[in-house]
Batch of 2 targets.
Target 1
Amino acid sequence: MPVTIDTVVAFSHHPLAPAASEPPPERRLEGTPRQGTANYFTDSTRQLDAGFWESEPGKWHAVSERNEFCYILEGYVRIADEQGNSKDFRKGDAFMIPYGFKGTWQVLEFTKKYYVIFVPESR
């Protein structure tokens, strides 16, 4: 199939309803945050995904088996490593979580973000 302007994915042109989920019970540390994910794009190798994610407040263990770019559209999150060092991100912030990161995700205020995820072939 040729790559044309029709293959360009504009998230805002055809918004998808986010599929509901929660962090698994064994990973939850605070709350039971309801989340939603709408994946807008997956490449032909199935290694690259891009979409929208939202979450209610809560905290859970995070183990990243992928590289993830995040852009916060709304809200406030704190990401901490296993040593307890943390960074806070709010509306307008963009950041990258590298493959192998271990720590916690904490949603302090209802949050919406765009994401781009790349899963390496060999881990």
Note: The two ends are 30 Å apart (CA to CA).
Target 2
Amino acid sequence: MKSKGAVKKRFRMTKSGKLKCSRPKRGHQHAPKDAKHKRNKRKAIIVTGTWAYLLKRMMGGG
């Protein structure tokens, strides 16, 4: 299976083999969002389960 460039751009593999990605809705229009909302968006998402398996395969891993 060929690796998918779009997936490689959006996800990173940790040393332990988990997948990390940033949260959506961080790009622009920050004025209407309160500080708590923006602060919570800084934390990464750890992808688990079936999605993690599929995304790892898309990144070129077995």
Note: The chain has a mean pLDDT of 93.
